[in-house]
Amino acid sequence: MSPEELPEDERWVDEEAGPIVRPYVMTYGRTQPSRGKLDLISLVVSIRRPPAAEAGLHPEHIQIIRICREPMSVAEIAGHLDLPAGIVRVLIGDLLDRGYVEVQEPPAPQVNLHDERLYKAVLDGLRAL
Amino acid sequence: MDSERSDRAGARRKKMPTAIKVLIAGGFGAGKTTMVGAVSETKPLRTEETLTDQGVGIDDLSGVEAKDTTTVAMDFGRITISDEYVLYLFGTPGQQRFWFVWDELSLGALGAVVLADTRRLADCFPSVDYFERRGTPFVVAVNCFDGARRYDPEEVRLALKVPDTVPVMLCDARERASGKQVLITLVEHAMAMNTAKRAVAG
Predict the structure, then answer these.
(1) % pLDDT > 90, chain B
(2) Which CATH number describes the domain made up of A31-127?
(3) Which among A84, A108, A121 has CB closest to B49?
């Protein structure tokens, strides 16, 4: 339903809509991604070239495909696009559905954080900075 | 499901790294953003996380009764450890009413740095309490601001009632080398805690 079709008193316009509502137009009002939980540090990588244009994809979708040539976290994508993380999660869900990106969730804490190898690798990496 | 996905990906391209997160906590103005910026390999980014009404009951903002979401800004940075690991640092909102953000952030975090500002030491009490209760490994880094009285780390430990097992150290949040040292101390501490936990369990 387009905003015009809504009854007058259910429409949010101008200031009433608030700054946070506008980006959700991009997600057609959706606040949850179509699948997955998508943590702030879930890594996203593109697996197909971005299309020049595609029905249902916004410029922001295309931008995500472009910047995720190298794996990038949900938080970073949100930072680069200057959009709230919640919006970015929905957009990534769309790209997952269309097979443009793959996502790697962070390690389950109870498994990988018990892996001593992880700590050692991080320590070595930090010392080498 | 995840391993299946990454196997499939791995067949076509290099393996995705594992993302690890570390939280930088502390009171308002303690230097969280400064520290994230000093150690991050990229310009620190800011993101807004919109949270649903869970936990907003403790939010005492007036005039927002009709709102069922809260927006919180977080600064974060990145350190590429190797092809295998990438470390993300999150400067967490320090105010008490944002504790529910911490719940999400601290889930699966390797550990936390509590930045203490000696001019307002009490500001980091909530962070210390929080990580202690959750069993999240943490270190206390006393940010030495210009002009602030220099404290002995042991004085700070006493004031914060932090047990001897938790490292307390001085730092300069503006200095990359100093921030790096804090992170190394944290990872060593987290590793020791993890080893001890496993010894008890095994």
Answers:
(1) 44
(2) 1.10.10
(3) A84
